[in-house]
Amino acid sequence: MTSVTATPSPVAVKGAGSPSADIPFNKQPVSPLRIVGTVVGYVCMIALAIFMVLPFVWMFLSAVKPNNEVYMVPIQWFPSVWHWENYLTIWTKAEMGLWTGNTIFFAICVTFLQVFTGSFAAYGFSKIKFAGRNVLFLIYIATMAVPWQSYMVPQYKMLAAMGIANTRWSIILLQAFGAFGVFMMKQFYDTIPDELSEAARLDGLSEWGIYRRIVLPLSGPSIAALAIITFTNTWNDYMGPLIYLRKNQLWTIQLGLKTFIGQYSADYAMIMTGSVLSVLPILVVFLIGQKQFVEGIATSGMKG
Amino acid sequence: MKYTRTVQAAAIASVAAMALAACGGGSGNDAEAVASASLNADTKVEISFAGWSLKSTPEFQTLVDAFNKEHPNVTVNIHEYSADDYDTQLTTDLSGGTAPEVFPIKNLQKYYSYAIDSNGGLADLTSVADAYKSDKNIDISQYNIDGKYYALPYRQDSWVLFYNKTMFEKAGVAIPDGTWTWDDYMKAAEELKQKLPAAGYDANSVFPTYHHNWQSVFQSFTTGQSAATVDGAKKNFLSGDYSYMKDMYNNVFLKAQDEGLTVDYNTSTSNKVQYQAQFGTEKAAMLPMGTWYAATLVSQQKSGDANKFEWGMAPIPQSSTVKSDDGKPITFADPTGLAISGAATGDKLAAAKEFVQWASGEGGAKALAAIATTPAYFSDSVVSTYFGVDGMANDDQSKKAWQEHDTRPENYVDKKTNDIQAALKIMNSTIMTKTGSVDDAIAKANADIAALK
Amino acid sequence: MTEVASKPVASPAKKPKGGELTTNAIGRRNLRNGLLFIAPNFIGFLFLVLGPVLSLFYIAFSKWSAFGMPKFNGLENWTRLLGDDTFKHSFWQTIYYALVHIPLTLVIAFGLAVILNSKLKGKAFFRTIAFFPYITSIVAAAQVWSMLFDPNAGVINQFIRLFTGGEDGWAPGWLSTTEWAMPAVIIVATWREVGYFMILLLAGLQTIPHELYEAAEVDGANGWQRFWKITVPCMRPTLFFVMVTLTIGSFKILDLTLVMTNGGPGDSTYVLAQYVYQQAFQQGNFGYSGAVSLVLFFLCMIVTIIQFVYNNAKEK
């Protein structure tokens, strides 16, 4: 409880020093109170950061433990023997390389399709006023409200009858056309003033032209956010591959790591090793994506 | 308006999905089709076979290799499933008509649903079962639904009491003698609690015994030992009145955790305690567990994951009032069976039938026993193969405990089994976490089950 | 931006531009263009998602074990729902979870997004850290949190006891009691999802033109006023998206309760989605399970439509 409720406190602290410190482009003279506030704020942020990464640290340490020490009563943070070689054996003992390759393939294909078709459809929903638009859009959102477990089987039957189950296509098709990307991009496009597209339309620009030259250049952060999230979700998805893939050659990391769990026992150290390795590519994508979050991208040519 | 057309299109798509849904499932092999299928030794046949976690579960590959030696014309391809979510995968497979020709039935909980609800998803194996009905070395009765069989067992584990001989001897406590009741068990545990610290074991982290956090630990002995015959036990299980479980909760399971004889249930669940680590690293001197653990213990002692100590298997403690009709100790465990897809036909069906029949019989049993896996077929040569495994306990009591028992199912096959187990699971969690009294929890389970149709 | 969502058809049609384009022609052109843009996604969506989802509306009114065809049985599943205590219990547990988890997550995520969008030094580092819980294995997260939540030795209770009277002071039993198990789950869920929603809100914050703030500053608005007059209205589409996905996600919560408590102790963290899964894949009652998920669906849709209407009203 402590960690979570502590979160807003930097806001409060900063607010005390200077009520508008959080708003960009705010330039006020530095007061001693503000310095104290900043220091306290940083201390809180760092304390919070520790809570945020604690489970990851445990995961990292467990990855190099002997298997029987992963879950101990009472909990033991450091291994009795450091098994650094776990990071090597996982590549030979299991098909980690193959799984990683598959997961990268799925994540890239799905992210590309989701971002591409999603931003396209979102433009249609956001900037073109056509009949039935709201109803269609609500239908999109509505499908998100249905738990997947309850239509998983009919969906599987359909794809199995089409001969797509147990192929790479099943995972790509399954993930790429969800409502999430359309919904998200549409909401971001709504924040771009309509005056821009209206003006361009009067100037004779085609819809494609408006999308390509006006809307797309403004949507860097939102595309980055969608890409990060789609990539992460596809990367970590377990149920989809579980239901659709029965050939080891097609497996993803999440599914593959499950082979370390037997009917009555499990190799938890290896699972943790795999989980740590599996986080690294997501971090790379995140770091690339977050470069897009640069202040001031949304200034060009707009007057509120 | 255009969107009405869109909605129409969507409606058509959904109808199409439902129509496609209809073509899943098996063609429904009846008993004759299976009975008349016979395998020609010259025809090359390929069949697929489901297994889980192949790296940590060598039994599937072992079966296939041994079968292949006797039937070189049959190629068996193993498809790898998840050990955890096997039933979810199998359900979608059977539903979509993509199940492999042969697949395991992991326990009896969903057996009824697969056999009956799937309406032909599983082939009728009664003709194969006939070969084993009067065979004393194997018990296939748990798969009997109204005289028909849809699966045959290839593994029949049973729950025994594992004990650490070294710890008992160091503490100066008498090891289980094969006649223990639950009272004797509790007395021994209390004695160990007193004497283990003096023998050099850490009083805070070493316990006399370990009760793992599975529902079956706290309920299935009780139900199994509630009647002299399996039919009586089944009747109790289906009766809808679970007050017969009260004494065991109070006198054994709750008492053991109150007195600190075992890691308590809350700690065990929230820390995901591994029973292999508790017993294998000498944090517990006793462990009620299924015989599958023997193979794990042998391999962990070899690899160094478990300490080196002397251990044995004893019959599970018995009720002091109810004795089995056949005089053997009553324990429990579901068999693991093999079933054949209702969609298999022709040579594939014949090969699948041959494979299942072989795996349940002595051929399959010997192959499994050689890797310390408990098979369903217990002939003398199978027993000597099993106890010939290097590192296996091989005192007479262990042999007897492994081989001679009146094993009751964990899940009594009935259409209400699933619902009952779900209600009993909540009851167990309430009692063992002490978030409700034993009486209230039982009353709630009784009411929940009475509310079922 | 404002009239887009609320008045879809009429507004452009009322003032035809130029001589040759009639109202109808514009409508037709917009329809054609709109559908062209939507098509690549919609075709996949229609067959792969919408079709199977619609089949659920039939399954929920039938008896189905996942094998063969569902058998229509009218309102049988629905009358059974009315008398089903487990359903009612899990329904209220889900509401409880959602009511606490949604505002908590939203406020913290928004706060974090605003802070990490300011001129804070090292914000890239903190953004990455905030995203960590979302990518940490859920099993590892559950394990460490149950250690932190340990009623006696856990860091959290040791901290609480500083204020409640030292060693013997009162502290919650967290995961080992029926009353505190759900709050514990909510805390972990919030911890896990805050970074995720922070990313979405951050992307929304970035689309607000700076000129707006500059103009407001010229007009003499203070920070608080600027937050409510500029940040919140400009963020409304993003907030709507975050609110809806957060709501839907909260009502469908499953993986965390499965790993942390598996519905226990007793049935204190047993939520609707677990009941859906249990009825379908463990009990083989796909029809009944379908009815339960439709309840979940209607619940989500009611909240979503309220937000949709409110949002549209606010925008105009």
From TrEMBL, chain A:
Coiled coil: none
Domain ABC transmembrane type-1, residue spans: 100-289
Membrane topology annotation: Multi-pass membrane protein
PROSITE patterns in alphabetical order: ABC_TM1 (PS50928)
Localization (cell): Cell membrane
Membrane-spanning ranges: 35-61, 104-123, 135-151, 171-189, 210-231, 268-288
Native organism taxonomy: Bacteria, Bacillati, Actinomycetota, Actinomycetes, Bifidobacteriales
Species in which this protein is naturally found: Bifidobacterium moraviense
Homology family: Belongs to the binding-protein-dependent transport system permease family.
Classification via PANTHER family: ABC TRANSPORTER PERMEASE PROTEIN MG189-RELATED, ABC TRANSPORTER PERMEASE PROTEIN MG189-RELATED-RELATED
A single GO cellular-component term on record: plasma membrane
Name of this protein: ABC transporter, permease protein
Highest rank taxon of the organism: Bacteria
UniProt keywords, alphabetically: Cell membrane, Membrane, Transmembrane, Transmembrane helix, Transport
One GO term of the biological process aspect: transmembrane transport
Pfam families with a match to the protein in the record: BPD_transp_1 (PF00528)
From TrEMBL, chain B:
Name of the protein in question: ABC transporter, solute-binding protein
One Pfam family linked to the record: SBP_bac_1
PANTHER family assigned: ARABINOSE-BINDING PROTEIN-RELATED, POLYGALACTURONAN_RHAMNOGALACTURONAN-BINDING PROTEIN YTCQ
InterPro entries referenced in this protein's UniProt entry, alphabetically: Bact_solute-bd_prot1, SBP
Residues of the signal peptide: 1-21
Keyword terms: Cell membrane, Lipoprotein, Membrane, Palmitate, Signal
SUPFAM superfamilies noted in UniProt: Periplasmic binding protein-like II
Higher taxonomy: Bacteria, Bacillati, Actinomycetota, Actinomycetes, Bifidobacteriales
Cell membrane is among the record's keywords: yes
TrEMBL record, chain C:
InterPro entries linked: ABC_transporter_permease (IPR051393), MetI-like (IPR000515), MetI-like_sf (IPR035906)
PROSITE patterns: ABC_TM1 (PS50928)
Alphabetical list of Pfam families matching this protein: BPD_transp_1
TM ranges: 35-61, 95-116, 128-148, 180-203, 239-260, 286-310
Keyword match Protein biosynthesis: no
Annotated Low complexity bias: 1-13
GO biological process: one example: transmembrane transport
GO cellular component: plasma membrane
Chain positions covered by the region annotation Disordered: 1-21
Boundaries of every ABC transmembrane type-1 domain copy: 91-307
SUPFAM superfamilies found in the cross-reference section: MetI-like
Record's subcellular location: Cell membrane
Bilayer disposition of the protein: Multi-pass membrane protein
Main location class: membrane
Keywords in alphabetical order: Cell membrane, Membrane, Transmembrane, Transmembrane helix, Transport
Superkingdom in the source lineage: Bacteria
Entry similarity comment: Belongs to the binding-protein-dependent transport system permease family.
Record protein name field: ABC transporter permease
Protein source organism: Bifidobacterium moraviense
